[in-house]
Amino acid sequence: MATSERQLIQSYLGRPGVVLVGRGNQGAVYDLGGRRCIKVAHDRAALRREIEAMQRGQDCPYFPRLYEYGRGYMVGSSFPESR
């Protein structure tokens, strides 16, 4: 992971009120508040597949909104939002 991406992730995780939702084999998910979460991945290949699936589902109201992503993280809605 590039230093600038690591710094970006730390800027998200360093915000007040950020809460760890859970950890798993692929990484960790944190609640950022405001119905947004960040997934920080250990398994970049799995994250890439998840991002691709989420991109395909952005027009579907049942998929979470994908706001931002990089090689080792993605920021999305905590749960599907009303559109």
CATH H level, superfamily name: Phosphorylase Kinase, domain 1
Structural shape: globular
Q: Under the CATH scheme, which class?
A: Alpha Beta
**What is the percentage of strand-forming residues?**
25-35%
What structural category arises from helix and sheet content?
alpha+beta
What order do the helices and strands follow?
A: HEEEHEE
Largest sheet: spatial strand order: 1-2-3-5-4
Computed over alpha carbons, the radius of gyration is: 12 Å
CATH topology: Phosphorylase Kinase, domain 1
Mean pLDDT comes to 90
Secondary structure: number of strands: 5
Which CATH architecture would you pick? Answer: 2-Layer Sandwich
Helix content: 25-40%
The biggest beta sheet is recorded as: 5 strands, antiparallel
As residue ranges, the low-confidence spans are none
Number of domains: 1
- So how many helices? 2
Distance between the termini: 34 Å
Q: What does the model show?
A:
- The chain is of the alpha+beta class.
- It has one domain (3-77): Phosphorylase Kinase, domain 1 (2-Layer Sandwich), CATH 3.30.200.20.
- Helix content is 29%, strand content 33%.
- It has helices at 3-13, 44-56, and strands at residues 19-23, 27-33, 36-41, 66-69, 73-77.
- The protein has a five-stranded antiparallel β-sheet with strand order 1-2-3-5-4, with helices on both faces.
- Strand 4 (66-69) and strand 5 (73-77) form a beta hairpin.
- The chain is globular, with a radius of gyration of 12 Å.
- The model has no long low-confidence stretch (mean pLDDT 90).
